[in-house]
Amino acid sequence: MAVALIQMKLALIRRDLTGPRSSWVFGGALAGLVLAAGTLTMATVRAEDPGTVRDLLAVVFAIWALGWMLGPAYSGQPVLRAEQFALQPVPRRRLALGLLGSAFVAVTTVVSLLAFCALPVFGLRLGTVSALVAVPGMLLQLALVVLLSRLMGRLFGALARSRTGATVSGVLSGAMLVASSSGWIVFIALDSVLATGFSRAFSTTVQALPSGWAVVAVEAAGRRDWLLTALPLAGLAGLVGLLWLVWSRSLGPARWARSTVRGSTADRAEPRGWAEKSDTGAVYVKELRTWTRDPQRLQSLIAPPVFAVLSCLVPLAFGSTAFLPFLGAVTALMGAATSANLYGQDGTALWLTLLTPGSERADVRGRQLAWLVLFTPMALVLTAVGIALADQPGLAPWAATATFAVLGGGAGLVPLTGLTRLAPGPDPRAVKNTATDHSDAAAQAFVTLFLALLTAAPALAMVAAGHLLGSPSLLWAGVPAGAATGFVAYLLLGRVASGVLARRGPELLDLMRTGKAQQDKSGGSETSFVKAMPRHRRQLLWTSFFVGCIAVFPQALVPTVMKLSGDVAPLWFLALHLRTEWQWPVIYAMFAIGVFGFAVAGRIVLTELRAARR
Known about the structure:
There is one protein chain. α9 (163-182) packs parallel to α17, α18 runs antiparallel to α23 (442-469) and α22 runs antiparallel to α23. The chain has helices spanning 2-18, 22-42, 50-70, 72-75, 92-103, 107-116, 118-126, 128-159, 163-182, 185-188, 190-196, 200-208, 213-222, 226-250, 274-277, 279-293, 295-313, 327-338, 342-346, 350-354, 360-390, 396-420, 442-469, 472-514, 516-522, 529-532, 535-565, 580-613. The chain is globular and about 75 Å long. It contains 28 helices and no strands.
């Protein structure tokens, strides 16, 4: 049984390596190899205290274990599942052994095994005996993370269609976005850790985690402490056996949560007042109910404030409070990005709107109002709290202006981006277990993120002019200007979105009904224009966009905020490492480079779109 399942898994891997997902597989493998190389490097560093390297490896292994545990929240259920063999006369334990064997046949497992080779490398530094002890520790470590991943996959699959699961997924999504965008800060503190070591409490904690038991055993073998060598390895082996028993018992259809999400009695109440008399009000009420019932919408509602809070708290590790006032603005910005595929999430339910003549405007306005009602209170409260906690009055007009402008711009862009760059996915009735099983809206999110910032640019320019001229009245005039530009964006972009829905409604419905793959094959949709580009132009597009993002946001906007607040932490910002007289010119140069990169990417997109239409 195990041999047959391993052969099936190898066939699936070969298909992925040559299929449409090959670029994702190779890209993920490359990123994993880079992380594995970094882990191996950690085993070779020199520290003042020999125990510091042990604790450092325990921290890194804990991060790898956490990544394996959170992976199923994004990758979904494994391709080989027990449910697929429900009609086969195979004993549960034999099936569990076969599925576990196939779980080790994966690119992620190979990459993790390379990373865990840091354990024998660390053992070699302590002696031959420690290196020999590290080999079984490395294998047990690998079995531990694989089994943890399988158990968490069962848990996430059971919770995926519930509100609890959506909330957990939203929190994890926000945390993972912060880790991927701000994780580089950890390496800044590495030098000080190697010099001073970790605190005693932190060291004890990371050693007590199962992910650190193998490191403790290897280090104890170097000191010839045989009891402390045997106990962690025995405990790790026992934990692996226990996890396998629990996982094997959990095989079969998930029964831990209901597959439907029920609204409360208040949710099912009839619309009253304005909502009862207006088409826009009816759509507004429907959208509010959808946002609180649909797991994917709920995840899009939870992730933005989590991302904003964690992102603005990261600089506190370096004593900087300059980003706290922008909690609300970042929440609104990420709220627009996570809602960029609003129509694609509804699937073929669009036909209800198309069968009601003249309802396009009401549908767009109702969605805009619901989005504003959900995100505006969060953004305003977080902005007020951030300004109060930061105790930097000079940043208050910047934060308030950005919040109001981005809220209006986001409300206008959400339906427009969802209609012009719709990414089809499964209907809600056929919803899958994870975010990766839904439509791929990463491109739409980036576009919405960038355009929402552009809608805030005029008002922020007024605030910058007031700051440079030393005019408090002009400085605070940016706040009503931000509200005005947001209101104009809400009206104008919503009107354009209504026209797009009226003009392209049947085409969009067909796109959602047939799916992106069939549209791409027929060549009848503009969504495939990026794939139809020559490779060199596609590479230039993504390179210029990446350069623009790096130059504008971390290398220009963030140093600008730090300079204006007076709370400067150089970190990895190029301009802040230069002499004072060169800092502003370099910031301006970064702005120029970023705008040039975005301009090149925009020109390529427009040119290819015209060619696709022709």
